[in-house]
Amino acid sequence: MEETGVNSSVTPPDPWAEVAARLGADLFLDLQPDPEASARGRGATLRRTLTEALRSAILDGRLPAGTALPPYRSLAADLGLARGTVSTVYQELIAEGWLTTRQGSSTRVADGAAHPDTAVNPTDTQIVGEEPATPPTFRFPHDFSLGQPCASMFPRTDWIRATRRVLTDVGDEAFAPSHPQGRPELRRALSGYLSRTRGVRTSADRIVLGTAVQSALELLSRNVFGDSLAVESHGLPFHWQAVERGGTRVIPIPVDDEGMVIDELERSDASAVLLSPSHQFPTGVALSPARRMQVIEWARRTGAIIVEDDYDGEFRYDRDPVGALQALGPDVVIHAGSMSKSLSPAVRAGWLALPPRLVDIVLGAKGLREPDASIVDQLILADLIDSGAYDRHIRRSRQFYRQRRDALVDAVSASGFEVPGIAAGLHAVVPVGHADEHTLVHQAFGRGIGVVGLSLFRHPDADPLPNGGLVVGFGTPAASTFTTDLQALRDLLAVSPAARRVVP
Ligand SMILES: Cc1ncc(COP(=O)(O)O)c(C=O)c1O
């Protein structure tokens, strides 16, 4: 190893495994030195091999444009190579345009160094060390897709503090397999929180914890719903699919501007019903007081079960918050919720507040141990609620989304439209004619705007709603882009002939 100046008497069996492992945290370089080369020839080979390896890493996307390379001295030390060798390789690659450097700053991969035709998906390459951070996902430049709150609102600092407190204080038993009902700390905290903020009438022993509304529906359909579940004619297809996977038939019931038409429910043979009474998804209407009473009476009369999906109950922006339906009928309503909208869908934490007679049935169905949910996260969430951090986060978020909603309403009305429905949640519907919905969604895609049409949420056996609509998720855009995203939406609505035709 004359070239390296170190380890001169010991030749490692495969020096290039070392090289590969050390060049950056997660980059594999396929370097094959020629074992037959003379010592002098070996120096040239090393240089050439390193040059080639860096070029191919740039070409195949493992070193994307802008990536800072380590200073040549450090890289040389890391790889056990002479500084001159690495410096020469950097100089050559700079001269060829693969790398760039400026006085006083690091050497970086040049913009456009990798031809797009030759770049491959970084996840296809062999990675040493960690998995790639995120799988590739397509994102619209102006992303109003549904199903997530604004990522920058996630209370990272509170979560870190809560984690530290929990892991400092909790006993070893927390790391054993856990009871399927979930940690009592979170059940206690949630029962207080849900009764304080949503009027839910429950207690820790009636709550069963899990990961999400979706998985809860699958569990309930296997064990609680009976033959058939009525659902709102427009809703989340993957919720219906979860129910059908559990073996329950799904019956769509029309919705109007008072929510589900309960007269139609009464005419069906459903043994259970799934409702989003606070903020119907996706139309955004609230179930009217008369229909609330009517559905509770129907359940009591027929022995049916109501599942209340309270998916964004915390986010109501007018002065007239609507409490949970469960408060009217804790004997017949299962109140289902999760942290997917209030914190993040990446936090897989959900709950069921059950009528007393269903607790053992649901627990029996879950098995002896908690199968899916993170017990450590349950403890962290309990701490967040008990410390008041969760309430603060919700208040902050409500304020943030209220401003977003107001800005959205302003932008949309500046283009001649209204956003009807109650002021709540993380999405709004801009009504357009049916024929125009498809055109507008298409045009939106063409402009890099991610919105979906209302018809996407129609159950295949249900009649269309009287109007079509654009469903705009205003929680999703990043804080840094929201203003320009909104402008793009406004421009779309303002110039689209399809849109103008439906101005009321
Ligand atoms: C209508 C509706 N229900 C429930 C949820 C919560 O989803 P989950 O708890 O299954 O992640 C969402 C989230 O997007 C939703 O839109």
From TrEMBL:
Entry-linked PANTHER family: HTH-TYPE TRANSCRIPTIONAL REGULATORY PROTEIN GABR
CDD domains registered for this protein in UniProt: AAT_like, WHTH_GntR
Pfam families found in the cross-reference section: Aminotran_1_2, GntR
Region Disordered, annotated ranges: 108-135
Annotated family: In the C-terminal section; belongs to the class-I pyridoxal-phosphate-dependent aminotransferase family.
Domain (HTH gntR-type): residue spans on this chain: 44-112
This protein's record includes keyword Transcription: yes
Protein name, UniProt field: PLP-dependent aminotransferase family protein
